[in-house]
DNA sequence: AAATACGTACAATATTTATTTTATAAAGTT
DNA sequence: AACTTTATAAAATAAATATTGTACGTATTT
């Protein structure tokens, strides 16, 4: 007896777990990364032990290939790592750090990359402008002069912005942010 | 004379401007919002004066409908506002604050929304679990007992996380973050 | 009141992103 | 050496987002 009830309660728990994972996936999308990263992070965090691509595929119902793609992204973001398991020739993955660390890693990585691309373009554009100035030094119409000035001024303002982003990324990466936005100790469920 | 050169230099400048705007658009995508928000922000910032939907459509080559959609998003994110211009029956839009302010607004908004959704789900799941516990109090198999405990513990950990995100959003929203990650005064272009 | 200008809802299309399928290479086993 | 197993590249498909076009409502002008 109780068999049916037990089965149905297990289903309910399963459903709750799934909803939590899906919420995490959606969070990640909001944060600008692939939702499946959130899903896998949630699962790996929940299981608390390293998992193979096959296990992840089984758990999510997605293809193994997709698991491979996403785990690679997670490695690049430094929110997961491989764990060598002797005796098995599968690769095992586990997460690195907790939710907050993952959050910090993701934003750090994204912001740094954005700042870097911006800096790269800004350099290119600045030298282009210098070149234009040099080239047309003899007959510089009022209008063109002004236009170049304006763009340079805007580039400078923009540079201040992405340099600030870089600083912010550092503030996250170093964990300094946690000094000012501390983690509250989690309470036991009432 | 100089007419051809003048035309070509103008084209070059135009191209540079466009590249900067496109970079901004790409930044926004990275940040998890529609790239066109970055584009319009860049244009409005550059022009330094309020613009109508038609002007924006003209400038971007996109449809007026799209401009309307995106401006609405920007209003919701508090990075743009309408400006009433008497005599005209068009609506004029201008940006609110500089790049950094926009950055802060966007993340504040996104993080708050994510935290809110998480909190909502967590509440639902917690009461569901309580309900399950109550319902099956008589014949609680070892296994189910443990499964519920585990999920509750995970929910608690997750709650600590999204509460932290909320705090972080507050830290951004209040501008406190700027105390610790200050804006460097921008240098004049060399 | 008819005509025009404006913004946007709604449906349709295009583009991008996520995911799967098929194919292949490398390593391990028999 | 032939056969498996594992991961992933490359191509194909599906799903989600961004964008446009059409239609319509409201306000304004004539």
UniProtKB/TrEMBL annotation, chains A, B:
Alphabetically ordered keywords of this record: DNA-binding, Transcription, Transcription regulation
CDD domains: HTH_ARSR
GO molecular function: DNA binding
Keyword hit for DNA-binding: yes
Coiled-coil segments: none
Transmembrane segments: none
InterPro entries: ArsR-like_HTH (IPR011991), HTH-GbsR_regulator (IPR052362), MJ1563 (IPR026282), WH-like_DNA-bd_sf (IPR036388), WH_DNA-bd_sf (IPR036390)
PANTHER family: HTH-TYPE TRANSCRIPTIONAL REGULATOR MJ1563-RELATED (PTHR38465)
Family (UniProt): Belongs to the GbsR family.
Protein name per Swiss-Prot or TrEMBL: HTH-type transcriptional regulator
